[in-house]
Amino acid sequence: MSESVGSDLPFRVIAILQDSQPAEEILQLCEDVPTVGVGVMLRDADHSPNVVQNLAKSLLANTLPQNLTLITNGCSVEEIGWRHLTSAELRRKEKPVSPFGASAHNYAEAQLAEQFGASYITCSPVFPTPSKPKLGSIGLIELGQYNNLVGIPLFALGGITTVDRVKECLDAGCWGVAGISFARNSTLFREILSLFS
What pTM does this model have? Predict the structure, then answer.
């Protein structure tokens, strides 16, 4: 994929929040590294809209850094312009009116997301991860094949626990990375942001 494919996206890193605990740290890191666009995906593991709406409310009470884009997962929040479709929502073809990304766990879902008009895709899990043990991992070779077959930005997700893994995903052609674990580790998150600055 050429570098220009994702140039309209306002973020290269997506930090996935499932609770408000790391939110303040992420806001501070975004202020500290203002040259890197960060998407903060508000998500509940059980896809509860109430949890996502409460996360949104707590974050929107802050002055958000200019380089931060909020993204909701599993529901819409009026004040937040970006949505991320779960693979189930994608298969049901529940297209939001706002810009959106989508989850893909296989090539058919990635292709569907592109055809449906997604602005980006998270491909997962790239590496083994305790949050999705039954899925298995797609690995770097298959990730590279996804990048060669779709024409929208891909974000590697799943098991992104080291800077070396981030580099491997970028070498495989990904536009960026997404993760839960690095959102909870401010040292790793800062190192990842420095790769893009």
Answer: 0.94
Q: Give the 3-state secondary structure percentages of the chain, helix then strand then coil, rounded to 5.
A: 40, 20, 45
What number of CA atoms fall less than 13 Å from residue 172's CA on the CB side?
Answer: 25
Q: φ, ψ for residue 107 (rounded to 5)? A: -65, -35
Each residue of 106-116: pLDDT tens digit?
Answer: 999 999 999 99
What CATH number does the domain containing 146 carry? 3.20.20.70
Checking 2-6 for CB contacts under 8 A at 24+ apart, the result is 5/151, 5/152, 5/153, 5/175, 6/120, 6/152, 6/153, 6/175, 6/176
For 167, the domain range is 3-196
Tokens describing residue 155: 């974000």
Q: Which residues pair with 71 in a beta bridge?
A: 41, 82
pLDDT category of residue 45 using cuts at 50, 70 and 90: confident
**Residue 140, CA atoms < 13 Å, CB-side half-sphere:** 11
DSSP structural state of residue 194: H
The total number of structural domains that make up the chain: 1
